[in-house]
Design a protein that fits this description.
GO biological process, one term: isoleucine biosynthetic process
Number of domains: 2
Strand order of the largest sheet: 1-10-9-8-11-3-2
Protein name: Probable D-serine dehydratase
Strand content: 5-15%
CATH class of the largest domain: Alpha Beta
Distance between the termini: 42 Å
Number of strands: 11
Pfam family, one: PALP
Radius of gyration: 21 Å
Largest sheet: 7 strands, mixed
Helix content: 40-55%
CATH architecture of the largest domain: 3-Layer(aba) Sandwich
Structural class: alpha/beta
Bound molecules: pyridoxal-5'-phosphate
Shape: globular
GO molecular function: D-serine ammonia-lyase activity; hydro-lyase activity; pyridoxal phosphate binding
Order of helices and strands: HEHHEHEHHEHEHEHEHEHEHHEHHHEH
CATH topology of the largest domain: Rossmann fold
InterPro entries: D_Ser_am_lyase, Ser/Thr_Dehydratase, TrpB-like_PALP, TrpB-like_PALP_sf
């Protein structure tokens, strides 16, 4: 069995907040050796563009953006002053992504579109040059109704896949793990999606969904633990962020480093985005993942130094966290493979810190996010205020460039959370800050 250095395993098992710096980080030239490249991400971007008119027709909320599903890059001056007074700090507001209300929108919708397009083309229901709005015609919809799109999820991927599959007329089945929030199940059921509740954690929900779909020739399973169409769909975010930074006249280059902090569950979303960011910015971008202290699955996998699976259970953790979007015990090996040479590091965050930052953001910037989405907020603290972080910056000559640096906190979910849930998160954060 693969293993971790003993002191690291002990620190993680004790749930001590940690910054792990990747000893196998390589220059961005390592991109050339990876199994997913720029052409794969470009194909996903083109699919989303080709299908934008279809999306605008299916979802009225996308009319204003002509079917583009994108989030703003927001200045947060008060939070920046509190978290990271040196340099610039911004929020990439995926908590407000339309249609799905989380980072899962781009990847999940991309994968359902790929399945729908491929099926309709193979069966001759549309021609290759046809406008993709044809996929919403009653004749095609009726044929889609014969097929099931299934997924296993802790909640947000289920929302994204379920909403998109149902909108195209597929039967949609979402296998939810025990930590999935009730309101997410209710919201899906209202859309006609079948929700199967499992008593076990994320890995079991995925396995059950995979097994059910395997037994049905008319079922397509979105496999969060291995999916390339999810990952490339997520990666499309990077090029769009690059355009937003250009529009804001924010330089990213050797003299103006970019630091991006991404909450990580199974790893597909943050790995896709990290891959896209490395393709866009090369060595000028430093990407860190954030994981709950109870569920540091990517940290454990990457620190084991290889791709033999190692889970948080193997080191004595229970994967029980309020950060339901990140409650994953074993990382995607596809994501781990891609990140092994590109990821700067991973830090862990106790639940209490998530609630405090949810409350800070609400109070200072009037933005409401779910606890998972606040995991990245600990990034500047871990990097700039720890001996290990400062030594890492100095070794890369980044310490002298912090005045010209840009830090981006990626807020990954929350706009669909009911108001009373937000109020509970914020009350808990406020009490923790006072205590
Ligand atoms: C799913 C999710 C993530 C992480 O994505 P993975 O692909 O699971 O790593 C982060 N934040 C939220 C809110 C999520 O729902």
């Amino acid at each position: 069995m693969p293993y971790l250095p003993e002191d690291l395993a002990a620190t993680l098992a004790a749930r001590t907040p940690t910054l792990w710096l990747n000893p196998r980080l390589e220059p961005a030239a390592a991109l050339a050796a990876l199994p997913v490249g720029e052409a794969d991400v470009a194909a996903a971007r083109e699919r989303l563009e080709r299908c934008a008119p279809l999306l605008a027709r299916l979802f009225p909320e996308l009319a204003a953006s002509a079917g583009l599903i994108e989030s703003p890059l927001l200045p947060v001056p008060a939070l920046a002053e509190a978290l990271c007074p040196q340099g610039r700090l911004l929020i990439k507001a995926d908590h407000a992504l339309p249609v799905a209300g989380s980072i899962k929108a781009r990847g999940g919708i991309h994968e359902v579109l790929e399945f729908a397009e491929t099926l309709a083309l193979e069966q001759g229901w549309i021609a290759p040059d046809d406008d993709r709005t044809r996929l919403a015609e009653p004749a095609v919809r009726e044929r889609f109704a014969r097929y099931t799109v299934a997924v296993g999820s802790t909640g947000n991927l289920g929302l994204s896949i379920g909403i998109m599959a149902a909108a195209l007329g597929f039967k949609a089945v979402v296998h939810m793990s025990a930590d999935a929030k009730q309101w997410k199940k209710d919201r899906l059921r209202r859309r006609g999606v079948t929700v199967v509740e499992h008593k076990g954690q994320y890995g079991e929900a995925v396995a059950a969904g995979r097994a059910a779909a395997d037994a049905d020739p008319y079922a397509y399973f979105v496999d969060d633990e291995h999916s390339l169409p999810l990952l490339t769909g997520y990666a499309v975010a990077a090029g769009r962020l690059a355009a937003q930074l250009r529009d804001a006249a924010i330089a990213v280059d050797a003299e103006h480093p970019l630091f991006v902090y991404l909450p990580c569950g199974v790893g597909g979303a943050p790995a896709g985005i990290a891959l896209g960011l490395k393709q866009a910015f090369g060595d000028a971008v430093n990407v860190f993942f954030a994981e709950p202290t109870a569920s540091p699955c990517m940290l454990v996998q990457l620190a084991s130094g290889g791709l033999e699976p190692l889970s948080v259970y193997d080191i004595g953790l229970d994967n029980v966290t309020e950060a339901d979007g990140l409650a994953v015990g074993a990382a995607s090996l596809l994501a781990a493979e891609l990140m092994a040479s590109l990821l700067a590091g991973v830090f862990t965050v106790p639940d209490e810190e998530l609630f405090r930052d949810v409350y800070r953001l609400h109070k200072m910037e009037k933005l409401d996010i779910e606890p998972s989405a606040a995991a990245g907020f600990s990034g500047p603290r871990r990097l700039l205020d720890s001996d290990a972080g400062r030594a890492w910056l100095a070794a890369r000559h980044l310490d002298a460039k912090l005045d010209q640096a840009t830090h981006i906190l990626w807020t990954t979910g929350g706009s669909f959370v009911p108001a009373d849930e937000h109020a509970r998160f914020q009350a808990r954060g406020e009490a923790l800050l006072a205590g």
